[in-house]
Structure formats: structure tokens, C-alpha cells
């Protein structure tokens, strides 16, 4: 049996590792680069707490040791009717296909009017350019998200680190942070007291919160928000609206949401196709943890069907470890429909924990099944 995985990120590599633990079948991963980076630790590049080389590993080398094929190529088109995938290195067929190409961050960032006057705190290049600007700029800093952006945790971290850098440099510039929720930081978490505590912490750090605001346009030295107001800042960094990558949309997998509509918790799109991570439509933030859980659930579904192997399924939730310069924090919200686990706390030791986990992810090429999510049954959601 042939298992074809498109994408070598958190979801794609988690699938490959888990399949190999239980099957000796043919497993192939196709990704545009054999060099894979653990990007949840990228905010610490801004303060030199980590170096680029600390974030990366050779996925081809790691997978080949397990007898998993790795093809460095671009995915050109997908043909589900014939079970074939056209790539820059040829055509591949499959029995089961996993779509794990991530989200179309770059293409959506370029759709923001005036994006050339801002950075995107998601890619390595975006973080490196933002770092240079934060350590040299004399003015204010703006951090925010475009409408319907799928994740705000990176923006929270960048705002905190920006405040730290300005303070360390002895500058008195302001740091502005937009939140999509009118309740503020972590406002989407349905637990009383969370957003109040989070807002208080950010405000004590001197960050100006602009609640319930989105970035609609960027001009040199200023940002236009969805209410028409403008914020002036020398350094502007934004995470865009997101959709599935163009090749996924062009191959007919996406719905009106711009994402692949899947069944939860299995992340199944069709009988032989699963869509994972950022490109799948879910009600949860698109995080590395969520991508890995989606992969776990998809493989558990397949193993039960084809081998009768019963493995756990997990719920999706929120786990955000904030890196904030000389401080840090953690937010957790998980529920399996019966129990709710939630926490919000601050302290530098959370950054140390995050760095240790990041090193483990890099060392094991994302083969780290523990993610602390509660187990669920396959018929939940």
C-alpha cells in the first residue's frame, strides 16, 4: 500500500513517523525543501536567544533512516480521480493521500494593500528583517493581524519582545497591539477571567491594546484599521488572512472558506484523502500543536480501518507559550467534551520549557507524539 504525504512540516512529518511505527508499507513525503525549520521558536531570533541553526534539521536524512522516502520537489497539481500527484520531479500515485502543505501565508500577505511597508512575523525572512528594524528604529512599533487571521499568539509574542527590545535600548517608543476579539488578549477563550488577566499583563508591560481591530491597509509609517482609524508607527508587522495554498485551491479541494472542509476529529476529506494542519477548516487556531494532533488523528483513523489497530484520538485546543523578552507565559485551553483544562500564568521559566521542547522537536525531526491534549472518541465533535 502506498501512502503519499504532501508537505514536510509538523503535520506531514508526524504522519510519516506514526505510519512507520505501525506499518512497513511504502511511505513517501514530498516537500519543497529538505531543510525544515521549527518556526514556533522564531520569536526568540529577535533577541538572539536562539540561532537559525538551532531551528533546523535535514528531513530527508531523518526520514531515510527509517526507510521513508523523501522527495524534494514542488507540488504542481493533484488528481484525486486517478490518485496521482504531479510534481516538479515527476508524477506519484497513492492509495492514501495526506494534504499537509501548510497555509498560503506569503500569497495572502501580498494581498494586503501596502504590504511592502510591513513585515510578516511568520517566515524566517520576515523575522530576520523585523529583528533588524526593531534594533535600529527610533519610533513606535505596531503589531497586528489582518481580518480573519487564524492565529494571534505570534503577534502577542512579537509585541512583548518589541517592548523588551525598546526598553533594553533605552527608547521610549510605544508598542501597539491589535486583538481580533473586542475582549482583548485571548478574548476568544470562553473562560471568565482569562482575557482580563492577560490584558492587565500586557498593559503593565506598557503595550497599548487596540481591541477588536484588524489591519485593512498599510502605508509607509502608518496602518489603517477596520474602523477607519490610523496608527502611526515606524515598525509594522502583520500576520495576514489565511487560506489553503494555491495548489490546493486549484486542485478543487477547498470550499467557500478557502480551506479544505474535513470531518472532525479524523480530518478526513474523502475516502482516500486527509487534509491536515493549516489548510484544513477547523474552529481552532492553526498552531503547530494542532497540526500534529490532526496528523495523529488521521493516522489513527486509517490504522483502525486497514489493520484494526486502536490508537487514541485527541481533541484540538489552545496551547500558547509566550516568549516575552525578559519574561514569558503560558495559556492553555483544552476540553474533551467532559473535562476542561485551562491555565494562564506568567514567568520566564515557561520560555526555558519552550526552548527545551523546541530542541527536542528539532533533534527528533518532529517525532514527538506527546502534546498534552486530552483523548476523545472518534465520534466526537
UniProtKB/TrEMBL annotation:
SUPFAM superfamilies xrefs: FAD/NAD(P)-binding domain
Species this chain originates from: Metallosphaera hakonensis JCM 8857 = DSM 7519
Protein name per the record: Pyridine nucleotide-disulfide oxidoreductase
InterPro entries: FAD/NAD-bd_sf, FAD/NAD-binding_dom, SQRD
TM spans (from-to): none
UniProt superkingdom: Archaea
Gene Ontology MF terms in the entry: oxidoreductase activity
FAD/NAD(P)-binding domain ranges (all copies): 2-292
Coiled coil: none
